[in-house]
Write a structure and sequence with these properties.
15 helices; 2 strands; 1% strand; globular
């Protein structure tokens, strides 16, 4: 038993567990909507789109978190602007911004020898170097995002599962989509210092996807995804302690493997010949007051 608890004896591991758990919960709540709405490619593009802002902030001696947030916001705004052209699909717009932002970031990094030293930490994170000020910032950002997610849950559910009904009820699905983009921007920007720009996508997508195998409602996916994300952080840190591997990458790998383990366990426990599990249900009222639960269609808006 002592060898299991030994890593927690180090103060920097304790801070890493706390910061990683905050990131896991934050990413699970936001990532649930990303997964349910089929926006995984957007999450990937935004996580890679942080690089130009981080590079510029580093060159100017500014705040890296602010640079990351502005860069992610620019990516989201660019996708929304390009998507207004009906001849260009949203996937195409995301792909264009993905390539443009990542290429710009690499160009800025390659032109600055001083920043190249910190590139590994920026891309893959350094969760073991997290300080209490980082933990406090993550806690504040997490509380803000959770409050916004709670207030916008009804509008997001309606816009996701019944966009036409949402518009008729005055829930403004376009505004709900913009709010979701804002939450993804904040979550990705706040999390990059812990797991890096390339690995934050793992915590944003994998735990909610693993939870989606079992959960039958959006709130249940958020709750179970948070638990899976926290477990991935703890397991990843424990493995990296004894295997001497990169902590952020190990956490991301454990999170990704959690989906495959969840899918295999579900397939093994499902009775032969049983029907396929329905997608998560969402409370979408037919009047301005919540009434009954409605099943989500197989194809999300």
């Amino acid at each position: 038993m002592e060898w299991i608890l030994e890593p927690l004896g180090a103060s920097f591991v304790q801070r890493a567990v706390l910061a990683g758990s905050l990131v896991a919960v934050l990413c699970a709540v936001v990532g649930t909507w990303v997964v349910v709405r089929g926006m995984a490619f957007l999450g990937d593009a935004m996580s890679h789109g942080l690089l130009p802002g981080i590079a510029i902030a580093s060159l100017l001696g500014g705040n890296l978190l602010l640079g990351a947030a502005l860069s992610a916001a620019a990516t989201a705004a660019g996708v929304a602007a390009i998507s207004r052209n009906r001849r260009v699909s949203q996937d195409t717009a995301i792909g264009l911004l993905f390539v443009a932002m990542l290429s710009l970031g690499v160009i800025i990094v390659s032109a600055s020898g001083s920043f190249a030293v910190d590139l590994t930490g920026t891309l893959f994170g350094d969760v073991l170097a997290v300080g209490m000020e980082d933990v406090a910032l993550l806690a504040a950002v997490g509380c803000l995002v959770l409050a916004v997610a709670a207030l916008s849950h009804r509008a997001l559910a309606a816009a996701t599962f019944h966009p036409q009904k949402a518009a008729s009820l005055g829930l403004r699905p376009r505004l709900a989509h913009a709010v979701l983009l804002g939450m993804v921007t904040v979550a990705v920007a706040a999390s990059f210092q812990v797991v890096g720009t390339l690995l934050v996508f793992g915590l944003l997508i994998a735990p909610p996807a693993a939870a989606l195998v079992w959960a039958r409602s959006v709130r249940a996916v958020m709750a179970l995804g948070s638990l899976i994300g926290v477990a991935s952080v703890v397991a990843g840190l424990w493995i990296s302690w004894y295997a001497s591997t990169a902590a952020g990458a190990t956490i991301a790998l454990v999170a990704a493997l959690s989906y495959f383990a969840s899918a295999l366990c579900h397939a093994a426990t499902r009775p032969t010949g049983s029907q396929r599990r329905s997608p998560p249900a969402a409370v979408v009222p037919s009047t301005p007051h919540p009434e009954k639960e409605t099943r989500a269609p197989h194809h999300y808006a």
